[in-house]
């Protein structure tokens, strides 16, 4: 006997909401006797599960590879019959005697464990032992994501994000079944990735003097602290491996041809002006561009070779955003290059420049991903577009058979204010409350079903000009990144904000136990 209460059973507060969940009768009790049984392919996932449960339980459940019929079991395994649930789908069945987690692929089993954690009492997220009964409600879940790209972008360039915080956020993001972490590693205000062949990139580019408070046009003095920091290649390998174990891909971004001032500060010969400049201390758009010469291409290829050796991601993000072309317009050398190549203007030069990079990436079996400005002057062949200035760029790209990740400012920019409350901390501007994120549909209605196939998914972006601390970073991310996780995971017809909000109220206790800062839901009423 079962009751169909998929969306608003008060006991079930899973985020993102599964595609289908049915409450059955009874509970499975997790005790000291419970064992986690896995097959070979899910053993590592079983150990991750045991390790996340252990602190609150006060004991580490055993992870075994043979069945123990007499013991209460959490059973993990691959089942090829579940191929219809896709690469990441899973089924989870909890009865009084056993919890069974199955999927056609390991990623699905991992997601089943994230659901299982959220079926336990919220105290399971505690970092210290809690003395209580660990009942898991009996359920039947069949679940799979709506999109394959479920992303979040963090900007380590404007304010460096320490490795330990990135690791912590991978735990929190993957709890919500986010599977892409896009790291914005280079910008005018900082170069944050060690490149062995060009040590000055971090020796010079990873340090900036005090930052001007306010905007470039409205400076209000200095913040009084120098900003520095970068990830060693070893740090990044650790981050990549930590993500991979949790089925999250880290996508690196090296911004080309603009947002390049920190690189040019390190090696002035890379720039159009060939003249010294400092790492930028103000926000906003800066005019420094890479010179489109053979030497600079070689530099970029060398950098990207080291990047590819660290990041197995198929997609390599090359930026392409906000490159104002004044320096190219003013340079006789660049104008001669445009003429030699038979190009019309600087936009076409950017397109040509990025096409060269795209070809280089393709030779290395990687795919070029860039912000929607890469449409200007002609989209490099095979390029994937990240549509940020609204959804129009993404529509054009999908209509011309290019893949797209939707990240429009209006629904996905977490550097915007999340409420009108006057005590809301300084943000870049804009207004994006959690219910607006929740209302986002990544599939534009104008696309045909065939074109819509090119929408890989969506991601939220958190630019960090006004996000100087990890605590504030978390405040800006949560709960809005969780709303986004539901937009990209849950079937559209199940999305209902009031229901999300109810589950979020329960979920806040989990975030608090994980020591994650967030903007409380109750404050929604005070806007
Ligand atoms: C635009 S979005 C940028 C970033 C800024 C952001 C501030 C994009 C591709 N470029 O460099 O940080 O606006 O919202």
TrEMBL record:
<dbReference type="InterPro" id="IPR025705">
    <property type="entry name" value="Beta_hexosaminidase_sua/sub"/>
</dbReference>
<comment type="similarity">
    <text>Belongs to the glycosyl hydrolase 20 family.</text>
</comment>
<keyword id="KW-0378">Hydrolase</keyword>
<feature type="domain" description="Glycoside hydrolase family 20 catalytic">
    <location>
        <begin position="147"/>
        <end position="491"/>
    </location>
</feature>
<feature type="domain" description="Beta-hexosaminidase bacterial type N-terminal">
    <location>
        <begin position="12"/>
        <end position="143"/>
    </location>
</feature>
<dbReference type="InterPro" id="IPR015883">
    <property type="entry name" value="Glyco_hydro_20_cat"/>
</dbReference>
<dbReference type="InterPro" id="IPR017853">
    <property type="entry name" value="GH"/>
</dbReference>
<protein>
    <recommendedName>
        <fullName>beta-N-acetylhexosaminidase</fullName>
        <ecNumber>3.2.1.52</ecNumber>
    </recommendedName>
</protein>
<dbReference type="InterPro" id="IPR015882">
    <property type="entry name" value="HEX_bac_N"/>
</dbReference>
<dbReference type="Pfam" id="PF00728">
    <property type="entry name" value="Glyco_hydro_20"/>
</dbReference>
<dbReference type="Pfam" id="PF02838">
    <property type="entry name" value="Glyco_hydro_20b"/>
</dbReference>
<dbReference type="InterPro" id="IPR029018">
    <property type="entry name" value="Hex-like_dom2"/>
</dbReference>
<keyword id="KW-0326">Glycosidase</keyword>
